[in-house]
Structure prediction request, 292 residues.
Amino acid sequence: MLNILPQRFYESPDVSKLMVDGNACIIHKKVLDSIYSKEGYVSTHAITAVLKGKLRIELEDHNLLEVQKNQLIFLPKGLYSISDIVPDDQHFEAIAFFFTKPIIDQFLEVNKMQFTNDRCISNLKLDFNDKISTFINTLLPLYGEQKNPSELTHMKLFEFLHLINSTVDSTCLAHALSTLNNKEKVGIKSFMENHFHKPLTIEDYAYLTGRSVAAFRRDFKRMVGTSPKKWLIEKRLTRAHDILKSDRDQKITDVAYDVGYINIPHFIKAFHKKYKITPKQLLMRHQEAMLV
Prediction:
């Protein structure tokens, strides 16, 4: 099951919500056992700081990032990744900071920051310095045992950006933040073409493209000419049909998962409605044809 972050964190027993104001939040994650190949999308810009163990992140281009203890990494909105959580001899522990557009806008404006360094990248990885370590290490004792007012969230996130700015070349930080900010509203058509086969809901796609559900449906229909639900069904079933015709060794369950369906009976019903044949019947017909 895909994780949409930070929304999924709000439901996880492994996560403590230190500060929350909508999608702007600071969360504390502590895990005892290793977790491998966890798929996820980041629905708002994030910085993850690893306190214990290490985090491995594989991006869509298969670039592998490894974040060690006392390192942090920028993760841009809309990022799809496959991550491994690897504890040390005790556990894995991290604090994740999720930033909304108004916070980044204000920070860039207050600091009069502009980026000029093309060699900088948006998924900037940094080592802790003394200021960052002190800031992070005080969060849990000061804010971990109580319900904190949402007004504090914006202030602490802004402060964290300020401390990072004192660590790195400001042009690199500005480039990273501006790159993140430019992803606030993602192009619907290209994003859907690249991710229609993931098990995401309309609500998930709306989050990941920086829109409300109503705005997403409206923008999608204006651009594509049909509703996102109808478009998704068509794209997923067409892909499933192509897979079943080209590979006789496929399992129906695997095909359903590969095209974004979690509910297998629902997949079979939708497939039969479109092609007047079940996936199993199509697979058997293809296998028989190969024997002739």
